[in-house]
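Holo model, copper (II) ion. Inputs:
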Amino acid sequence: MKKIFSHVQTSVRKYWVALILGLLILGIGLAQAHAALLDGLFSDLEEGWAEDAAEKGETLTIGDFYQAEVPDAHGPIGTMANHTHNYGEFMFSYRYMNMFMKGTLNGTDGISDQNVVRPTQVGGEGFVVTPTDMTMQMHMFSGMWGMTDTLTWMLMVPYIENDMNHLTRGGGTFRTSSNGIGDVRLVSMWRLYAIESPSIGAHKTHFNFGVGFPTGSINAEDVVPRPPNQGGGKFRTTLPYPMQLGSGTFSIVPSLAYLWGSGDFSAGVMPKGFVYLGENSQDYAVGNKFNLNSWGAYRAADWISLSVRLNYEWWANYRGADPRFDQAVQRQLVYTVFPNLRGGERLDMLGGANVLFPEFMGYETRLAVEYGQPIYQNLEGPQLATDHVLWLGFQLVH
Ligand SMILES: [Cu+2]
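Output:
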């Protein structure tokens, strides 16, 4: 049964191009239907709002979703799909992320590296090796395109670099690395409504439907030391789950954005889900994830906005297990090969800035930065704890 399934997964991969084209064509049709549907749905509401505004001597603006010339038209740089574009607009963006993880948590309790590798008979966790820290760097290239005023497309292509340091029970240390392209994601972004008047401010919502493609490797390898009692030396092996670059499965990524703005202040709320479909060719699936972002921003000047963001994440354990880790699990080699030591939840607090440069020949350029740390994390451990995360970004809108 498993063999049949892995075959299906592999054969589906050959149809990516057809799948993407299909989504595009479907999108064009849906965008037309959707615009008509929303006209019907919101016209009564809009009339009501317009009357309220008229009574106060104000005019109601409808459908003004995006203005490239304000710094807080984009959410904090660590959030994705936080705005849509107008018809014909194009955006390129490059993001750099550096996430540093250090030390081991079980639940909310810290465990020292020495205790993770100490035998259980003397009160330790009994692992042969423990990760001591991990740096995950991501270079993410993305493009956005307003196909119509209702539908924006976004394509995200990540390049990932992972580095992990380890401590062995014998006191030795070693480092493993992996790098390569991650899972590519295509997102269709649907504008729901945007209304604005001086007394109520601006209220905008959009819905995103993303599809993740299994372009990232789940076969990353590196060289690790062989224990002295097995002859010593080094050998090449498949790296544990957190060092892999992709999920190996298709995924569905829906999210909703509610954006508010009034004068120099703006805010956003974005719930988002990641659902990994089926199992990959190594009989497992990455844990589903729920993510809730909320932020507030203050436009300190025409060219800069400052933001504070709360990022809550909850993610499940992996389903299934990679058979290549069976022996390592049996020998309790290292906790990163256990599919049931992957879940957890975390709340991060981040501060950031969006900087807008003067428009040049119709191009709006911006730089952004964001830095944050967890204020709460609870892990199905032992598992590596997040220490901090840094985002840098460059964006070009035309
Ligand atoms: Cu954009």
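Confidence is low (pLDDT under 50) at residues 1-8. The first helix runs from residue 2 to 13.
Archived with the compound record.
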